[in-house]
Design goal:
The structure is a homodimer of 223-residue chains.
Chain A (H helix, E strand, L loop, with lengths): L1 H26 L3 E7 L5 H15 L2 E7 L4 H7 L5 E5 L8 H8 L9 E5 L16 E7 L6 H4 L1 H6 L2 E5 L11 H11 L4 E4 L8 H13 L8
Chain lengths: 223, 223
């Protein structure tokens, strides 16, 4: 009971900062996405493959969340995209306070798109609002088609889901039928994409969706 | 600062129950392992493939931890192995209190080996003692060779590491060289196994290690 209360107060404190950030992002007309997945589902590789095109059209910045190391931020920095690394030192998710602090190191002037790559974890990041316009969940084929049903919170709260490593389909027992049945049941509005960050397959469709989001001030274009 | 204090007291409460459980397991001569990995690294499949042999030699029981659903427990029950499902209802890891409660539903009389399959999460389960003799971490080739350096806590605390989905090596950019360099640096005593739950490759070596653990009352046999 006490633990539930503590959790509520932590989440409430997070909501307060997230509200402040959301207002800031709106004023500055910045679209924000929050990438969430298990470790190794391909968040950073998807960024490496899509940032060159995105940054040719928009002013983009990235916030990298990791428990430890700045390996991911180094990979992004190579693409000449402004990036801030948050090392959570053990914490299993990013929170709004960390984002607020990271923003101090970014030039927000004229920024169109801010991409937050969360800590690799399919559970905890789902419940912390980072003032994003859209949570984007990434699931890898190698993780198995039962994952949406087993970790429904993030699939409920996300606006888009990338099924990555689609090139591994022939070597796995992933069932596309089960996967689509479950995600449609959990979240009928979820935009789904089949991609391979390895081969590049399907990423252009995701980039188009992102462009629609930026064009609509963070709202999805559903015409 | 307050949050750190709260975390310490939660961990302290967990330690107290874990100590009680450890004493019980010692009295009953039960070896306990705690399987930890990201979602979809292969914990349940590895159990499906090794339990038939293990349960032909020992009295084995399984505790399944999941955020939601009893899918994994149903898979284990098919093997005629006693299994208790813990649904954490959102919590990102098992704790000692949940294990204590689950034990009420198991017949501990003559039990040799208790296998706890934790919630799919490479971060939070690493810090909660479940009174196990050994944490066993499972990493899938599909997750990438940079994961031990990025999530070192579990690799530091585990006694064994299974590199699963070794059959996917030809289709991934996983570097065995980087992987072994990092795990040996993080934890020189870590027992490492290359396995494929899909093809069965390498699992017999892991079963032998487990048998050594049971034979030595939960201690590793390092002669």
């Amino acid at each position: 009971m006490t633990q539930v209360k503590i959790e509520k107060s932590i989440l409430q404190a997070n909501e307060d900062i997230a509200r402040e950030l959301r207002s800031k992002f709106k004023d500055e007309n910045i679209t924000v996405i929050n990438l969430i997945s298990s470790p190794g589902a391909g968040k950073t590789t998807i960024l490496e493959k899509t940032l060159p095109e995105l940054s040719s059209k928009y002013k983009v910045a990235v916030i990298e969340g990791d428990v430890l190391t700045s390996r991911d931020a180094e990979r992004i920095a190579k693409l000449q995209v402004p990036v801030v690394q948050i090392e959570t030192k053990g914490a299993c998710h990013l929170d709004a306070k960390m984002i607020k602090k990271a923003l101090e190191e970014l030039d927000l002037e004229g920024l169109d798109l801010l991409i937050i790559e969360n800590v690799g974890n399919l559970v905890c990041p789902a419940t912390f609002d980072l003032a994003e316009d859209a949570k984007v969940v990434i699931l890898s084929v190698a993780e198995g088609s039962d994952k949406p049903a087993k970790y429904p919170t993030i699939f409920t709260r996300a606006k888009a889901c990338l099924l990555n490593k689609i090139d591994l389909l022939p070597y796995s027992n992933f069932s596309l039928e089960d996967y689509y049945r479950d995600v449609k049941q959990i979240n009928p509005k979820l935009q789904t994409f089949e991609v391979s960050a390895f081969t590049g397959e399907g990423l252009e469709t995701f980039v188009e969706w992102l462009e629609g989001l930026v064009a609509n001030g963070g709202q999805e274009n559903r015409n």
